[in-house]
Design brief:
The chain is an alpha/beta fold. Helix content is 48%, strand content 13%. It has 13 helices and 11 strands. Helix 2 links the parallel strand 1 and strand 2.
Length: 378
């Protein structure tokens, strides 16, 4: 009997073969995690925005990110406002299943429950929109919103928040606003609790979608209006119907997009797809904000230099009158136990967080004036 001699090379080949088989088995285990890869989800999402609005682009930023992250397992088709339901009725559309999802703002359905406006365009307690999103994610806001949806309103909707919007301008006027007396008696477009606020200041308020604002100005239905930002305003032609743009206001100091899904549809999706929808909102929140700084600032310069719009800082007297009006509204809103709970939660967050941010923030205005003297006329 001849004894088989095992050479080092043969041993190496045997080791590699064995390791390769073990590695293939391990790879198969890794490649086959417990997720439902066979299931593909298709959703129909409608926005609340006109075709030219920058908000459509921001909604598409969300859709694009989610679709890419899902790698074909989720396909969201995005439709502009009015494609299936009225821009102000997307909540009904999502709840009823006419559409699977929507890109909107809570203030558009505050007529169903005024607490909706507290999750964007509520009273000014001192936080900016980024700090407000902090309250939603870490200060109890999302839990309170869930309570509003599931226990109080009992709507079949699941929502996420994105995009800390910069302060919304007081808006567009035919004459410059120099005091609170100048706005009394004006027919003014706004939405949500801002409508209650400006009515308390003596205005007559009409609540209209963005696409209806310019025609309403042209027909004399309204005398003045606000929508949201220089880019949206310029795209729908605000500069063609008014030439005085008042920047800064307490009426909508903070707001966020609401990305809503039909809750039954959402719960039926695989958990990893649910996670993509949720965390995609957080991802696009930053992307939208960075885009806004770029777009809004460029369009404000275009309004000034090309469209010859008189861009002015809202007078301090208006801010003071708005704070006083908010004080009166807060007393009335607090008669609803849930709304009081929401506002108390916000104030608790503000007292701690804004105390830190205001005490710690550097003098940005002073630094700007140092490097660009005379530019900031305020």
């Amino acid at each position: 009997m001849t004894k088989k001699i095992r050479t080092p090379e043969a041993g190496r080949r045997k080791f590699l073969k064995t390791a390769g088989l073990a590695g293939a088995a391990a790879a198969a285990t890794i490649a086959m995690p417990q997720i439902s890869r066979a299931q593909t989800v298709a959703l129909k999402m409608q926005g609340s925005w006109g075709a030219k609005d920058v908000f459509n682009e921001m909604a598409q930023d969300y859709v694009e990110r989610v679709n890419k992250m899902a790698s074909g397992r989720l396909k969201i088709d995005y439709l502009v406002g009015g494609a299936v339901v009225h821009p102000f009725q997307v909540l009904d559309g999502v709840h009823g299943g006419q559409i699977d999802a929507a890109h909107t703002v809570t203030v558009y359905w505050y007529g169903k429950h005024k607490a909706a406006s507290l999750f964007g365009t509520g009273p000014v307690f001192g936080f900016n929109a980024n700090e407000g999103l902090g309250w939603i994610h870490n200060g109890g806001g999302k839990e309170l919103f869930e309570e509003l949806q599931t226990q109080i309103m009992k709507i079949n909707v699941k929502s996420f928040f994105a995009m800390p919007m910069p302060t919304q301008p007081l808006g567009w006027f035919k004459k410059p606003v120099t005091s609170a007396n100048d706005v009394k008696g004006l027919k003014y477009r706004t939405v949500g609790l801002a409508a209650d606020l400006h009515q308390a200041m003596g205005m007559s308020v009409a609540q209209l979608p963005g696409g209806e604002i310019v025609p309403a100005m042209e027909r004399g239905v309204i005398d003045a209006f606000e929508f949201n930002n220089p880019t949206s305003d310029r795209r729908f032609g605000a500069q063609d119907v008014a030439k005085n743009y008042m920047m800064g206001s307490h009426h909508q100091a903070t707001e966020y997009f609401e990305i809503m899904f039909n809750r039954t549809k959402f719960n039926s999706m695989p958990t990893e797809i649910q996670a993509i929808c949720q965390y995609g909102a957080e991802a696009v929140s930053s992307a939208n904000e960075w885009k806004a700084y770029d777009y809004y600032s460029k369009d404000m310069q275009e309004l000034i230099n090309k469209d010859k719009v008189n861009v002015l800082r809202t007078p301090q007297g208006i801010f003071d009158a708005q704070i006083k009006a908010w004080d009166g509204l807060i007393v009335e809103l607090a008669k609803d136990p849930f709304m009081k709970k929401v506002m108390d939660s916000q104030k608790e967050w503000v007292r701690r967080v804004v105390h830190y941010t205001q005490l710690n923030a550097t003098d940005y205005k002073g630094a700007f004036n140092h490097h660009f003297p005379g530019v900031l006329k305020m």
